[in-house]
Design a protein that fits this description.
- This protein is α+β, with helices and mostly antiparallel strands and 554 residues long.
- It folds into two domains: 300 residues, no CATH class; 155 residues, Alpha Horseshoe (Serine Threonine Protein Phosphatase 5, Tetratricopeptide repeat).
- The protein is 52% helix and 8% strand.
- It has 25 helices and ten strands.
- Strand 4 and strand 5 form a beta hairpin.
- Helix 2 runs antiparallel to helix 3, helix 6 packs antiparallel against helix 9 and helix 22 packs antiparallel against helix 23.
- The radius of gyration is 30 Å and the shape is globular.
Length: 554
């Protein structure tokens, strides 16, 4: 037999060639078929196109609901239609449902309301809620610029809420109501959204509390509301609630109705310190002043340990719909809208997270959702004729249209001026709230310069009354915008002029307080104290005097 003997130098190249052939054979056997490769590419392109389309559709919803003067009074049905299309074709559902037996819903919500939370179709309540949350998010970004710590942020938010929501149990100027309606009007007669509350600048203790909790949610800080025991004698609504804000190393306690924070004379409130009882919370403010202790008597008489512990949020925030939308509200459109009851991804749910923070001083912690936000939204959507009429009267000066001149260029590039009827006050208020103070002040000044109409008759009289009230509101809001813009001197001058022009006006009490604070911020403490002494307010209205007296010189 003849054997082929290869030179030894050929062996390495031959071995390498064999390995390459084996590898090529393996790769060839696992290579996908051409049709399969094309199918995967088509699927990937379709998924990417759908994702872009869904993002574009959600952005359209955001553009309709976001706070801007152009759409402050926009019709909301289109947003609801767009949202339902998005929920049907784009939303990612977790599969979780809300149980009507959850203890957090017991007491004031029926099974139908809880069942509606699990529906995959949006209602007008969802739209109103989303619009409110987007407005609050915009306010947070404006108010909290360069504020370093959580405690400082909470206090800044509380000051802003109290300054921009003056206490008012009637909410409608008495000149716009007949005596019979005025006598029967109660603080909850008028359904309003958070946007309505912010724009009118007036509200109840419940309105302040609701807005405060909404602000803090945008900071991922939670709020608890403690309601005075129902068995206690009826007291002024301003004494009814305490807002408790747990932080990492301390507890902050506020009375939204009275507009004060109860800060200890030394150190800070901690869970262990509050475990000994609530009496110390009130007795040290401000500096054991006898006048303050007299005013605080309704708070001291309550057994707050027996009060209802409330979650001051809308139950809509627990809905799977909000959880689905939360995934889209990121980046430039970031906004907190979802509060899941049960935890996900290792994060505690709403109640479990709060329980860990308050168990030392609220050992029997069984909170329930506060009914006020849901009832208010539901009545707003129901559009009951009497309630809707009262809402329109409460916002009459905002809804009132005025002649506005706008300029544009025609096809020949010539300047053209046209007159339009516009809700200028409504747009100015939104400019003001979101930090566009110069534009707001400019509009306020124009509205203050309105002249009365000549003539007789009820229509002329009503028009002149609305112009008068609108000019008064614009006068006060001009000062408020100047104050929030840091121009305390101009704000003080404007407020002094307002109080002289409208001695029985609708903003006398908050105007006097704001003037005193403007003087304090200018370092004119003595003048501020003289202004405080000249105020003859009685009862809870005196709290702002004691609060300012206790504050240090700026």
């Amino acid at each position: 037999m003849c054997r082929l003997k290869l030179p030894s130098r050929w062996l390495p190249p031959l071995l390498l060639a064999c390995c390459l052939l084996i590898l090529a054979g393996c790769n060839g056997s696992s290579r996908p078929e051409p049709n399969q490769d094309k199918t995967e590419q088509v699927s990937a392109r379709e998924a990417l196109a759908k994702k872009r389309l869904c993002s574009d559709n959600f952005l359209k919803i955001y553009q309709v609901l976001r706070p801007s003067p152009a759409n402050v009074d926009a019709e909301l049905q289109s947003a609801q239609d767009l949202l339902n299309q998005w929920l049907l074709s784009c939303a990612e559902w977790s599969g979780r449902e809300i149980s009507p037996d959850a203890p957090e819903f017991q007491g004031h919500f029926d099974a139908e309301e809880i069942s509606d939370l699990n529906q995959r179709a949006a209602s007008q309540l969802d739209i109103l809620f989303l619009r409110d949350q987007l407005l609050v998010r915009s306010l947070v970004e404006h108010v909290l610029q360069d504020v370093p710590t959580d405690a400082a942020k909470v206090r800044r938010v509380f000051e802003f809420v109290c300054r921009n929501v003056a206490h008012d149990e009637k909410l409608i100027h008495p000149l716009l109501l007949d005596p019979q309606t005025r006598d029967t009007l109660g603080p909850h007669s008028i359904p309003r959204s958070l946007q309505d509350i912010c724009l009118t600048g007036r509200g109840t203790p419940e309105d302040r509390t609701w807005l405060l909790a909404a602000f803090l949610q945008q900071l991922n800080l939670k709020t608890l509301l403690i309601e005075a025991p129902a068995s206690e004698p009826a007291v002024d609504a301003r004494y009814r609630y305490l807002a408790v804000v747990p932080l990492d190393d301390s507890i902050l306690i506020f009375s939204p109705g009275l507009g004060v924070e109860f800060r200890p004379a030394a150190e800070q409130w901690t869970p262990a310190r509050l475990a000994g009882g609530w009496e110390e919370v009130f007795q040290g403010w401000p500096g054991n002043d006898p006048a303050a202790l007299e005013l605080l008597a309704p708070l001291l008489s309550q057994d707050w340990a027996k009060g209802r512990v409330l979650l001051p949020y809308s139950i809509l925030q627990t809905s799977p719909r909000m959880a689905a939308m939360q995934l889209e509200l990121v980046g430039d459109t970031v906004c907190e809208v979802s509060l899941p009851l049960s935890g996900e991804g290792g994060q505690p749910g709403l109640v479990d997270g709060l329980r860990a923070a308050v168990r030392d001083f609220l050992p029997d912690f069984r909170p329930v959702f506060w009914e006020y936000p849901q009832v208010t939204y539901s009545r707003l959507v129901a559009k009951e004729p009497q309630a809707e009429r009262l809402r329109q009267l409460a916002m009459a000066t905002l809804f009132k249209e005025v002649v506005s001149v706008r300029s544009s260029e025609d096809q020949k590039e010539q300047r053209v001026f046209t007159q339009n009827l516009e809700k200028r006050m409504l747009m100015a208020r939104l400019d003001h709230l979101t930090g566009n103070h110069e534009e707001a002040i400019s509009t306020y000044i124009k509205l203050r310069l309105q002249q009365g109409m000549a003539g007789d008759g009820p229509e002329i009289a009503l028009e002149n009354l609305l112009r008068y009230l609108q000019a008064e509101n614009a006068h006060y809001w001009s000062a408020l915008a100047q104050f929030e813009n840091g121009d305390y001197r101009s704000a003080g001058d404007t407020l002094q002029n307002y109080l002289a022009r409208y001695p029985e006006g609708n903003w006398v009490a908050p105007g006097r307080e704001l003037w005193a604070r403007a003087l304090m911020n200018q370092g004119k403490r003595e003048q501020a104290m003289q202004l405080l002494e000249s105020d003859k307010a009685q009862g809870p209205e005196r709290f702002w005097q004691l609060k300012l007296k206790s504050e240090p010189q700026h």
